Amino acid sequence: MHQRFASFPRKPLLTTPRMPSDSVRPASPGWGRRLGRALKGLAQDIWSNPPAGVWTHGWRSTSRRESAPNVRKSRVRKPSITLPQLLETLWGPGQALPSCADVMARLLMPLGIRAEGTDPPQSLLDLSAGLGGPLRALTQIPGITVTGLESNGRLIGEGDRVLYDPATFQASDLYDGVMARELFYRVAHKAVFFESILKALKPGRPLVFTDYVLDTQAGLSPTVTGWLIQEPHAEPLCLEEMRQAWASVGIMDIESDDETVPYLAEVRQGLGRLAAFLQDSSLDDVTRAFIHQELTPWLGRADALASGGVKLYRFRVLKPREG
Protein backbone atom coordinates (compact mmCIF):
# COMPACT_ATOMS: atom_id res chain seq x y z
CA MET A 1 0.00 0.00 0.00
CA HIS A 2 1.32 3.40 -0.96
CA GLN A 3 1.26 5.86 1.92
CA ARG A 4 2.01 9.49 1.22
CA PHE A 5 3.51 11.48 4.07
CA ALA A 6 3.51 8.42 6.36
CA SER A 7 6.73 9.33 8.17
CA PHE A 8 6.10 11.16 11.42
CA PRO A 9 8.27 12.23 14.35
CA ARG A 10 7.96 9.78 17.22
CA LYS A 11 9.86 11.57 19.97
CA PRO A 12 7.81 13.22 22.73
CA LEU A 13 7.48 16.95 22.21
CA LEU A 14 6.72 18.29 25.66
CA THR A 15 9.69 18.43 27.98
CA THR A 16 7.94 20.23 30.82
CA PRO A 17 5.61 18.28 33.17
CA ARG A 18 2.25 17.35 31.66
CA MET A 19 -0.59 14.95 32.16
CA PRO A 20 0.09 11.57 30.47
CA SER A 21 -1.76 11.24 27.16
CA ASP A 22 -3.30 7.93 28.14
CA SER A 23 -4.88 9.28 31.29
CA VAL A 24 -7.28 11.82 29.84
CA ARG A 25 -9.77 12.67 32.52
CA PRO A 26 -12.93 14.77 32.47
CA ALA A 27 -12.36 18.35 33.53
CA SER A 28 -13.37 18.87 37.12
CA PRO A 29 -16.10 21.45 37.84
CA GLY A 30 -13.47 23.92 39.03
CA TRP A 31 -11.33 23.87 35.88
CA GLY A 32 -12.65 27.23 34.72
CA ARG A 33 -11.80 28.93 38.00
CA ARG A 34 -8.31 27.42 38.07
CA LEU A 35 -7.59 28.39 34.47
CA GLY A 36 -9.03 31.84 35.04
CA ARG A 37 -6.77 32.41 38.04
CA ALA A 38 -3.75 31.17 36.09
CA LEU A 39 -4.50 33.40 33.12
CA LYS A 40 -5.25 36.38 35.34
CA GLY A 41 -1.84 35.92 36.86
CA LEU A 42 -0.29 35.69 33.40
CA ALA A 43 -2.00 38.89 32.32
CA GLN A 44 -1.08 40.84 35.44
CA ASP A 45 2.54 39.67 35.53
CA ILE A 46 3.27 39.84 31.83
CA TRP A 47 1.23 42.54 30.16
CA SER A 48 1.58 45.08 32.97
CA ASN A 49 5.39 44.68 33.14
CA PRO A 50 6.67 42.68 30.16
CA PRO A 51 10.22 41.37 30.42
CA ALA A 52 12.78 42.69 27.95
CA GLY A 53 12.40 41.07 24.55
CA VAL A 54 8.82 39.84 25.04
CA TRP A 55 6.36 40.55 22.25
CA THR A 56 3.11 42.00 23.56
CA HIS A 57 0.26 41.85 21.03
CA GLY A 58 2.74 42.39 18.17
CA TRP A 59 4.69 45.23 19.80
CA ARG A 60 8.10 44.62 21.32
CA SER A 61 8.86 46.32 24.62
CA THR A 62 12.06 48.34 24.13
CA SER A 63 13.76 51.01 26.15
CA ARG A 64 15.35 54.16 24.73
CA ARG A 65 18.76 52.63 25.29
CA GLU A 66 17.85 49.48 23.36
CA SER A 67 16.66 51.46 20.34
CA ALA A 68 19.66 53.81 20.30
CA PRO A 69 22.24 53.38 17.50
CA ASN A 70 25.53 51.58 18.10
CA VAL A 71 24.14 49.79 21.17
CA ARG A 72 24.16 46.01 21.10
CA LYS A 73 20.66 44.66 21.63
CA SER A 74 20.03 41.83 24.06
CA ARG A 75 19.08 38.45 22.60
CA VAL A 76 15.34 37.84 22.34
CA ARG A 77 14.48 34.94 24.59
CA LYS A 78 12.28 32.15 23.26
CA PRO A 79 9.54 30.31 25.17
CA SER A 80 10.49 26.91 26.52
CA ILE A 81 7.65 25.22 24.59
CA THR A 82 6.47 25.55 20.99
CA LEU A 83 3.00 25.96 19.58
CA PRO A 84 2.74 22.24 18.64
CA GLN A 85 3.72 21.30 22.19
CA LEU A 86 1.10 23.63 23.65
CA LEU A 87 -1.61 22.25 21.35
CA GLU A 88 -0.69 18.67 22.25
CA THR A 89 -1.03 19.58 25.92
CA LEU A 90 -4.53 20.85 25.16
CA TRP A 91 -5.84 18.24 22.71
CA GLY A 92 -3.55 15.21 22.88
CA PRO A 93 -0.60 13.78 20.92
CA GLY A 94 -0.64 14.74 17.24
CA GLN A 95 -3.76 16.88 17.61
CA ALA A 96 -4.02 20.57 16.73
CA LEU A 97 -7.79 20.70 17.35
CA PRO A 98 -10.28 19.20 19.83
CA SER A 99 -10.60 15.59 18.72
CA CYS A 100 -13.65 13.93 20.19
CA ALA A 101 -13.68 10.35 18.93
CA ASP A 102 -17.41 10.44 18.14
CA VAL A 103 -17.13 13.63 16.07
CA MET A 104 -14.16 12.25 14.14
CA ALA A 105 -15.96 8.98 13.46
CA ARG A 106 -19.00 10.80 12.10
CA LEU A 107 -16.75 13.03 10.03
CA LEU A 108 -15.09 10.07 8.35
CA MET A 109 -18.21 7.94 7.90
CA PRO A 110 -19.46 9.66 4.70
CA LEU A 111 -16.06 9.00 3.12
CA GLY A 112 -16.75 5.27 3.28
CA ILE A 113 -13.70 4.56 5.44
CA ARG A 114 -13.78 1.44 7.58
CA ALA A 115 -11.20 0.22 10.07
CA GLU A 116 -10.69 -3.02 8.14
CA GLY A 117 -9.78 -1.09 4.99
CA THR A 118 -11.32 -0.16 1.66
CA ASP A 119 -11.62 -2.05 -1.62
CA PRO A 120 -11.00 -0.59 -4.13
CA PRO A 121 -8.31 1.70 -2.67
CA GLN A 122 -9.19 5.33 -2.00
CA SER A 123 -7.21 8.54 -2.12
CA LEU A 124 -8.03 11.26 0.40
CA LEU A 125 -7.05 14.91 0.68
CA ASP A 126 -6.84 16.45 4.16
CA LEU A 127 -6.93 20.25 3.94
CA SER A 128 -6.32 20.78 7.67
CA ALA A 129 -3.70 18.17 8.54
CA GLY A 130 -2.61 20.11 11.65
CA LEU A 131 0.03 18.17 13.60
CA GLY A 132 -0.62 15.01 11.61
CA GLY A 133 -2.44 12.88 14.20
CA PRO A 134 -5.59 12.06 12.16
CA LEU A 135 -3.51 11.71 8.99
CA ARG A 136 -1.20 9.26 10.75
CA ALA A 137 -4.18 7.15 11.84
CA LEU A 138 -5.68 7.11 8.34
CA THR A 139 -2.45 5.93 6.73
CA GLN A 140 -2.63 2.79 8.90
CA ILE A 141 -5.89 1.71 7.22
CA PRO A 142 -5.37 -0.72 4.32
CA GLY A 143 -6.23 0.74 0.95
CA ILE A 144 -6.05 4.40 2.02
CA THR A 145 -3.65 6.95 0.56
CA VAL A 146 -3.70 10.38 2.22
CA THR A 147 -2.27 13.71 1.13
CA GLY A 148 -1.95 16.12 4.05
CA LEU A 149 -2.00 19.89 3.55
CA GLU A 150 -1.80 22.55 6.27
CA SER A 151 -2.25 26.32 5.94
CA ASN A 152 -0.48 27.20 9.21
CA GLY A 153 3.28 27.09 8.74
CA ARG A 154 3.86 26.98 12.50
CA LEU A 155 2.38 23.46 12.60
CA ILE A 156 4.38 21.96 9.74
CA GLY A 157 6.95 19.32 10.56
CA GLU A 158 9.63 17.85 8.35
CA GLY A 159 8.28 15.94 5.36
CA ASP A 160 4.93 14.83 6.80
CA ARG A 161 2.65 17.65 5.62
CA VAL A 162 2.76 20.29 2.90
CA LEU A 163 2.19 24.00 3.48
CA TYR A 164 -0.38 25.66 1.23
CA ASP A 165 -2.43 28.84 0.87
CA PRO A 166 -6.23 28.41 0.54
CA ALA A 167 -6.35 31.61 -1.52
CA THR A 168 -4.23 30.03 -4.28
CA PHE A 169 -5.06 26.35 -3.80
CA GLN A 170 -5.07 24.25 -6.98
CA ALA A 171 -4.95 20.46 -6.69
CA SER A 172 -2.72 18.51 -9.06
CA ASP A 173 -4.63 15.23 -8.56
CA LEU A 174 -8.22 14.01 -8.29
CA TYR A 175 -9.31 12.49 -4.97
CA ASP A 176 -11.99 10.06 -3.79
CA GLY A 177 -12.69 12.28 -0.79
CA VAL A 178 -11.70 15.58 0.82
CA MET A 179 -11.88 16.49 4.49
CA ALA A 180 -11.30 19.70 6.45
CA ARG A 181 -11.72 20.78 10.06
CA GLU A 182 -12.48 24.29 11.36
CA LEU A 183 -10.86 25.86 8.31
CA PHE A 184 -13.37 27.71 6.14
CA TYR A 185 -14.41 30.23 8.82
CA ARG A 186 -11.05 32.00 8.41
CA VAL A 187 -10.89 31.86 4.59
CA ALA A 188 -11.75 35.24 3.07
CA HIS A 189 -12.97 34.27 -0.41
CA LYS A 190 -14.87 31.11 0.43
CA ALA A 191 -16.64 30.56 -2.91
CA VAL A 192 -13.32 30.64 -4.79
CA PHE A 193 -11.86 28.08 -2.38
CA PHE A 194 -14.98 25.89 -2.61
CA GLU A 195 -14.73 25.83 -6.41
CA SER A 196 -11.07 24.78 -6.23
CA ILE A 197 -11.97 21.97 -3.82
CA LEU A 198 -14.68 20.67 -6.16
CA LYS A 199 -12.13 20.51 -8.96
CA ALA A 200 -9.99 18.26 -6.75
CA LEU A 201 -12.85 15.76 -6.25
CA LYS A 202 -13.79 12.91 -8.53
CA PRO A 203 -17.42 13.10 -9.77
CA GLY A 204 -19.90 11.76 -7.25
CA ARG A 205 -17.41 11.88 -4.38
CA PRO A 206 -17.82 13.73 -1.02
CA LEU A 207 -16.27 16.59 0.86
CA VAL A 208 -16.83 16.45 4.62
CA PHE A 209 -15.90 19.28 6.93
CA THR A 210 -16.58 20.90 10.28
CA ASP A 211 -16.77 24.63 10.82
CA TYR A 212 -17.89 27.34 13.21
CA VAL A 213 -21.31 28.74 12.29
CA LEU A 214 -23.07 31.84 13.61
CA ASP A 215 -26.50 31.34 15.15
CA THR A 216 -28.68 34.05 13.60
CA GLN A 217 -31.42 33.53 16.20
CA ALA A 218 -29.02 34.31 19.04
CA GLY A 219 -27.71 37.38 17.24
CA LEU A 220 -24.21 38.83 17.39
CA SER A 221 -23.86 38.98 21.18
CA PRO A 222 -21.02 40.78 23.01
CA THR A 223 -19.47 37.35 23.68
CA VAL A 224 -19.35 36.47 19.97
CA THR A 225 -18.15 39.96 19.11
CA GLY A 226 -15.35 39.58 21.66
CA TRP A 227 -14.23 36.34 20.03
CA LEU A 228 -14.21 37.93 16.55
CA ILE A 229 -12.10 40.80 17.87
CA GLN A 230 -9.59 38.28 19.23
CA GLU A 231 -9.50 36.54 15.83
CA PRO A 232 -9.52 39.38 13.30
CA HIS A 233 -9.23 36.98 10.34
CA ALA A 234 -12.32 34.99 11.36
CA GLU A 235 -15.29 35.40 9.02
CA PRO A 236 -17.79 32.69 10.07
CA LEU A 237 -21.06 32.34 8.19
CA CYS A 238 -24.54 31.46 9.37
CA LEU A 239 -26.16 28.29 7.98
CA GLU A 240 -28.05 30.12 5.24
CA GLU A 241 -24.93 31.98 4.14
CA MET A 242 -23.05 28.67 4.01
CA ARG A 243 -25.73 27.21 1.74
CA GLN A 244 -25.63 30.30 -0.46
CA ALA A 245 -21.85 30.11 -0.77
CA TRP A 246 -22.05 26.50 -1.97
CA ALA A 247 -24.99 27.29 -4.24
CA SER A 248 -22.82 29.92 -5.96
CA VAL A 249 -20.52 27.10 -7.15
CA GLY A 250 -23.36 24.81 -8.23
CA ILE A 251 -23.96 22.75 -5.05
CA MET A 252 -27.63 23.00 -4.14
CA ASP A 253 -27.76 20.18 -1.56
CA ILE A 254 -25.59 20.31 1.55
CA GLU A 255 -26.11 18.13 4.62
CA SER A 256 -25.45 19.60 8.07
CA ASP A 257 -25.49 18.36 11.67
CA ASP A 258 -24.96 20.28 14.91
CA GLU A 259 -21.96 18.81 16.78
CA THR A 260 -21.61 21.62 19.33
CA VAL A 261 -22.33 19.60 22.48
CA PRO A 262 -19.59 16.92 22.16
CA TYR A 263 -17.18 19.47 20.69
CA LEU A 264 -17.64 21.94 23.55
CA ALA A 265 -17.18 19.12 26.05
CA GLU A 266 -13.84 18.29 24.41
CA VAL A 267 -12.81 21.96 24.49
CA ARG A 268 -13.59 22.20 28.20
CA GLN A 269 -11.70 18.99 28.89
CA GLY A 270 -8.64 20.32 27.07
CA LEU A 271 -8.72 23.62 28.92
CA GLY A 272 -9.00 21.65 32.16
CA ARG A 273 -5.85 19.73 31.27
CA LEU A 274 -4.06 22.99 30.58
CA ALA A 275 -5.20 24.43 33.92
CA ALA A 276 -3.65 21.42 35.68
CA PHE A 277 -0.47 21.83 33.62
CA LEU A 278 -0.15 25.51 34.58
CA GLN A 279 -0.65 24.68 38.25
CA ASP A 280 1.97 21.94 38.26
CA SER A 281 4.63 23.65 36.13
CA SER A 282 7.22 26.31 36.85
CA LEU A 283 7.37 28.48 33.72
CA ASP A 284 9.55 31.47 32.90
CA ASP A 285 8.00 34.82 32.02
CA VAL A 286 8.54 34.47 28.27
CA THR A 287 6.81 31.07 28.19
CA ARG A 288 3.91 32.34 30.28
CA ALA A 289 3.48 35.30 27.92
CA PHE A 290 3.49 32.92 24.96
CA ILE A 291 0.84 30.67 26.50
CA HIS A 292 -1.36 33.65 27.33
CA GLN A 293 -1.17 34.98 23.76
CA GLU A 294 -1.88 31.63 22.10
CA LEU A 295 -4.66 30.65 24.49
CA THR A 296 -6.67 33.87 24.27
CA PRO A 297 -8.46 32.97 20.98
CA TRP A 298 -9.40 29.55 22.36
CA LEU A 299 -10.98 31.11 25.42
CA GLY A 300 -12.98 33.38 23.11
CA ARG A 301 -14.16 30.42 21.03
CA ALA A 302 -15.12 28.46 24.15
CA ASP A 303 -17.16 31.39 25.48
CA ALA A 304 -18.85 31.92 22.10
CA LEU A 305 -19.76 28.23 21.85
CA ALA A 306 -21.05 28.12 25.43
CA SER A 307 -23.19 31.22 24.85
CA GLY A 308 -25.02 29.56 21.96
CA GLY A 309 -24.10 32.37 19.57
CA VAL A 310 -21.69 30.09 17.70
CA LYS A 311 -22.18 26.44 16.77
CA LEU A 312 -19.85 23.72 15.52
CA TYR A 313 -21.44 22.00 12.51
CA ARG A 314 -20.47 18.98 10.46
CA PHE A 315 -21.21 19.29 6.73
CA ARG A 316 -21.29 16.93 3.76
CA VAL A 317 -21.09 18.09 0.16
CA LEU A 318 -21.30 15.73 -2.82
CA LYS A 319 -19.79 16.66 -6.17
CA PRO A 320 -22.35 16.02 -8.95
CA ARG A 321 -21.71 13.16 -11.33
CA GLU A 322 -20.78 14.15 -14.84
CA GLY A 323 -23.61 14.15 -17.34
Describe, in short, the structure shown:
With 323 residues, the protein is an alpha/beta fold. It contains ten helices and ten strands.
Topology readout:
Blueprint: H1 31-47, E1 55-56, E2 59-60, H2 64-67, H3 83-91, H4 101-108, E3 122-126, H5 133-138, E4 144-150, E5 162-163, E6 177-181, H6 190-200, E7 206-214, H7 222-230, E8 237-238, H8 239-247, E9 254-258, H9 260-280, H10 285-307, E10 310-318
Parallel strand pairs: 3-4, 3-6, 4-5, 6-7, 7-8
Antiparallel strand pairs: 1-2, 7-10, 9-10
Helix pairs in contact: 1-9, 1-10, 7-10
Euclidean distance between termini CA atoms: 33 Å
Share of residues in helices:
25-40%
Spatial shape? globular
The total of helices stands at 10
CATH architecture of the domain at 95-209 and 239-257 and 313-318: 3-Layer(aba) Sandwich
Helices and strands, in order, run as HEEHHHEHEEEHEHEHEHHE
The Cα radius of gyration reads 21 Å
CATH topology-level fold name of the domain at 95-209 and 239-257 and 313-318: Rossmann fold
Mean pLDDT, as a whole number? Answer: 79
Describe the main β-sheet briefly.
8 strands, mixed
Q: Which CATH class of the domain at 95-209 and 239-257 and 313-318?
A: Alpha Beta
Q: Would you identify the regions where 5 or more consecutive residues have pLDDT less than 50? A: 1-28, 42-69
Strand residue percentage: 5-15%
CATH superfamily caption of the domain at 95-209 and 239-257 and 313-318 = Vaccinia Virus protein VP39
Structural class: alpha/beta
The total strand number stands at: 10
Would you mind describing this structure in some detail?
The chain is an alpha/beta fold and 323 residues long. The protein has a domain at 95-209 and 239-257 and 313-318: 3-Layer(aba) Sandwich (Rossmann fold). The protein contains ten helices and ten strands. The strands form two sheets. Strands 3, 4, 5, 6, 7, 8, 9 and 10 form an eight-stranded mixed sheet that branches. The protein has a two-stranded antiparallel ribbon with strand order 1-2. Helix 1 (31-47) crosses helix 9 and helix 1 (31-47) crosses helix 10. It starts with 30 loop residues before the first helix and ends in a 5-residue tail after the last strand.
